[in-house]
Write a structure and sequence with these properties.
- It is a single chain.
- Strands 15, 16, 17, 18, 19 and 20 form a six-stranded mixed β-sheet that branches. Strands 7-14-13-10-11 form a five-stranded mixed β-sheet.
- The longest helix has about 30 residues, at about 135-165.
- Helix 4 packs antiparallel against helix 9 (about 320-325) and helix 6 runs antiparallel to helix 7 (about 205-215).
- The protein is α+β, with helices and mostly antiparallel strands.
- The chain has four domains: about 15-135, no CATH class; about 145-215, Methane Monooxygenase Hydroxylase, Chain G, domain 1 (Up-down Bundle); about 225-310 and about 330-340, Immunoglobulin-like (Sandwich); about 340-465, Double Stranded RNA Binding Domain (2-Layer Sandwich).
- It is about 35% helix and about 30% strand.
């Protein structure tokens, strides 16, 4: 008998030792705590209650319940927007308010301290957790953290002021943004602090206005806003973009700005270009000769301050991007590149219903688009580099009496001849392109011509752009 009791005792010890640290004690539904069925109100405390369903033998339900309880606790900590908050500048921007609320709730949860487990309860189906946090303790911790945050941000702010005084505007922007990075989770709070150089300031508002002022006063100007270049040849002369700051305190004197990242890209056309260059001590960003790979006659190079390079990791922060909204005032300029196309002579062979077309609708429209995008036309074939030929035929199709529809078909062939070698360097076209309209064949002809021109513009001319002359 004693031996049997000893064995039972050992089994009981083993069962107890295998229980999880936070064991769920199964109770009957009559033992449910009051805080589970009715949310308590504790004047001096924030509370958070979370529940998770129990599924199988996994302990995940414990962490889920805890997480839900913390989310509930955070939701009780209402975000009180201080009268000195910079957010009042954006009170009409609802999307920014929503971004800020999500951002702040996440921040509160990540930095939450001082909460304690008040109770937990579970049965075979559910697990509940009850957290509480002293409002006084929370406010004391928050006040101390806010003071530390403002002091750290002030350090970056004062550095930015020194950079501005020395006309180092690139580093000034970087330092202002570093200061903002420190306070961005506390934008709803009172961010007023005493600055040794400027007295009492609101950090949020001061940082925002300082960055915007620098952006507004930086100007980019190219050495030439219009460049002429021959087709498929490089731009010989360097493109120089000068960055300057209009210093109002010095009587609106322009000061060159060094160490600014300038991005050169394409505003129009297909020049192979996407490059970031830093301005030198003269405030100049110098772009070496760039090859014009597109055959378009008018193209544009855009130069703009590359804000993402300056911002670094902050460029990925949606809240920061929405607050500063740099897109509206990024310093930029454009350089127009005029490409002199090959000289071309045009031959049109256009028939409408077996008669020579008097208007040559398709041929003339085709020539007009080529003159805008690819060639410079001449009436002297001997002076032309190439001869462009277009031959079109329109024929009457079936009349659908039931629907009162007239059908017309278009055939088209386009070729380009190199006048020096007399070799055909391009050939394309289409057959039986259908147009149809009611009333008569003339209406159907117009529809067919319009469709033919769309096909030429969308499919054939882009292929002609790839010809190597």
């Amino acid at each position: 008998m004693k031996k049997l009791l000893s064995i039972c005792f050992l089994i009981l010890i083993g069962m107890v030792s295998c229980r999880t640290p936070e064991t769920v004690v199964t109770e009957s539904e009559y033992s449910i705590p009051a805080w589970v069925t009715s949310r308590p109100v504790i004047t001096d405390y924030y509370i958070g209650i979370g529940m998770a369903k129990r599924n199988g033998m996994s302990d995940n339900y414990i962490s889920i319940a805890r997480n839900n309880a913390l989310n509930d606790l955070v939701s009780e900590i209402s975000i009180q927007v201080s009268g000195n908050s910079m957010l009042y500048q954006f009170e009409n921007r609802s999307e920014l308010k929503e971004e800020f609320r999500t951002y702040t709730n996440t921040s509160i949860k990540e930095n939450l301290e001082g909460y304690e487990l008040a109770a937990s309860w579970g049965n075979n189906y559910e697990y509940w957790v009850f957290y509480k946090l002293s409002k006084k303790a929370y406010n004391n911790i928050k006040a101390k953290k806010l003071e530390d945050i403002k002091k750290r941000a002030l350090g970056f702010y004062e550095n930015a002021q020194l950079y501005e005084e020395n006309a180092d505007y690139s580093n000034a922007i970087i330092s202002y943004l570093k200061a903002f990075d420190v306070i961005k989770k506390n934008l709803a709070d009172d961010l007023v602090i005493f600055s040794p150089t400027k007295g009492s300031i609101n950090l949020g508002t001061e940082i925002y206005n300082s960055v915007q002022e620098i952006m507004n006063n930086i100007q980019l100007k190219p050495n030439s806003d219009r460049i002429q270049v021959s087709l498929s040849t490089p731009i010989i002369n360097d493109i120089v973009v000068s960055a300057s700051y209009l210093n109002k305190s010095n009587g609106k004197i322009s000061v060159p700005v060094s160490n600014l990242p300038i991005r050169f890209s394409i505003a129009k056309g297909k020049i192979a270009l996407n490059e970031i260059l830093m301005t030198n001590t003269k405030g100049e960003a110098i772009l070496a000769a760039a090859k014009v790979s597109n055959k378009g006659k008018i193209q544009q190079i855009k130069a703009n301050l590359d804000v993402e390079t300056i911002m670094g990791d902050l460029a990925k922060d949606n809240l920061v991007k929405q607050i500063f909204a740099f897109e509206s005032n990024i310093p930029s300029c454009k350089i127009t590149v005029e490409v002199e196309g090959k000289k071309a002579f045009m031959l049109m062979d256009e028939f409408d219903f077996d008669s020579i077309s008097k208007r040559k609708t398709i041929g003339n429209a085709f020539k007009k688009e080529l003159s805008e995008k690819l060639f410079s036309f001449t009436d002297n074939r001997e002076k032309a580099d190439v001869t462009v030929k277009i031959a079109t035929r329109t024929t009457k199709g079936t009349y659908l009496e039931r629907n009162d529809l007239y059908i017309v078909y278009v055939d088209c062939e386009i070729s380009i001849i190199d006048n020096k070698t007399e070799a055909e360097i391009f050939n394309n076209g289409f057959t039986n392109l259908k147009g149809m309209q009611i009333r008569d064949y003339d209406n159907a002809l117009k529809d067919a011509q319009q469709k033919a021109l769309q096909k030429i513009s969308n499919e054939i001319i882009p292929e002609m752009n790839n010809i190597e002359f």
